[in-house]
Amino acid sequence: MHIDIRSLALPERWDEQTPTGDSFRAAAAHAARVNDERFGIGVAALTLEERLAAWQSSEAELHVRRLAFDGAAIVGAASVWLPMLESLENGDHGVAVEASVPALARRAVIEALTDDAERIAAEHGRTTLMGGSPAAANGAVMAATGFGGVDPDEPEAAALLARGYALEQVYRFSLADVRALGAASPGLDERWADASARARDAGYDTIAWSGETPAEYRPAMRTLHEAMSTDAPIGGLALEPETWSDERLAEFERQKTAGGRTMRTVVARHIASGELAGFTSLFVGAEIGAPGGDVARQHDTLVRRDHRGHALGMLLKLANLVQLRDHHPMHPRVSTMNAEENRHMLAVNEATGFEAVAYEAVWQRKDA
Ligand SMILES: CC(C)(COP(=O)(O)OP(=O)(O)OC[C@H]1O[C@@H](n2cnc3c(N)ncnc32)[C@H](O)[C@@H]1OP(=O)(O)O)[C@@H](O)C(=O)NCCC(=O)NCCS
């Protein structure tokens, strides 16, 4: 096999009838096959329009997509993400090779794409490198956090181990189904009513909206996003606290919804002060029908430190699931990713029916 690695150029539109458009659609089909293998058929599916939006760079992050070819066939791909506003030493990469590629060839493609990604990160002056690989709840190599591990013989993990990366964290990818929650006893409505009553007694209510953050809540939402960058567990990863300007919030929301996805947000409000105590958000894609395509994506969930201990995390989660059920009947399932050591968040998720379907490792190597 002769491996040739090239950058993917993105077309203006997903359906553009040009060689650039054709390459993009072939790359998207490859990404979809890899995701089907890792997470289940259609579970992480994006429409081509959503995929095009997801691969764009933003002010906050430069994204380089690399493709490995054997002749005309795509045999692997990698993304290199370069933060542009903070964590400027970091270069994060992820390699994607179909499990169906024969073992020897698979290893060769992974090695070549990993070298290539490291070269790109170095060209941008990045000295702290991060990489990903499939993982598990346990493994012969455990994460530095003590939660989750990997099989060192798994080819993506092996490539990183051989290059001196340390396994910092393992993330659990899980799914919940609002139909099952509705059918359980107590059902979703009953639990939501109980959680709302308890929150009201503690001095909190919720506000929900769809689409961009309304003007009156934007300053508070910026603070909540900043808290997300410091409060969610990151193990030993060298990630700096983020600063969210109004422009950053606007660009984030624009990019996340650019491909036609709907963003739903629920906030918990401290009634007496009017302060926003926490938030959760969800992205719902276009209705693409079976197979898959029925899975919405949970994004951030956070309760500010001074408001914890009132089960507002559970309140927000239940509110979001009710929103999903009521407004998006074609999307009864939700996926989420949580650090395996994040017991507080996992406790809420497990209690709302989330079950693990995959694990992803985050590795790090500091060169300076
Ligand atoms: C997950 C989270 C929303 C839960 O907050 P919550 O709903 O207020 O939690 P609970 O009301 O269930 O808290 C139960 C107890 O655990 C404590 N607790 C909750 N989260 C805690 C945390 N991250 N660290 C330490 N203690 C925590 C509470 O103070 C409370 O203690 P108490 O019983 O002594 O009063 C919150 O921990 C959080 O915002 N974490 C940071 C953001 C994050 O990790 N998000 C998920 C990323 S995927």
Describe this structure in words.
This protein is of the alpha+beta class. Helices cover 35% and strands 30% of the residues. The chain contains 10 helices and 14 strands. The strands form 2 sheets. Strands 1-2-3-4-5-14-8-13-12-11-10-9 form a 12-stranded mixed β-sheet, with helices on both faces. InterPro entries: Acyl_CoA_acyltransferase.
In short:
This protein is 35% helix and 30% strand.
Q: What secondary-structure arrangement, pairings included, does this model have?
A:
Elements: E1 4-7, H1 19-39, H2 48-54, E2 61-70, E3 73-83, E4 90-96, H3 103-123, E5 128-135, E6 141-142, E7 149-150, H4 155-162, E8 166-177, H5 178-183, H6 188-202, E9 204-210, H7 218-231, H8 246-257, E10 262-270, E11 276-284, E12 295-303, H9 312-327, E13 333-339, H10 343-351, E14 355-366
Parallel strand pairs: 4-5, 12-13
Antiparallel strand pairs: 1-2, 2-3, 3-4, 5-14, 6-7, 8-13, 8-14, 9-10, 10-11, 11-12
This protein binds coenzyme A.
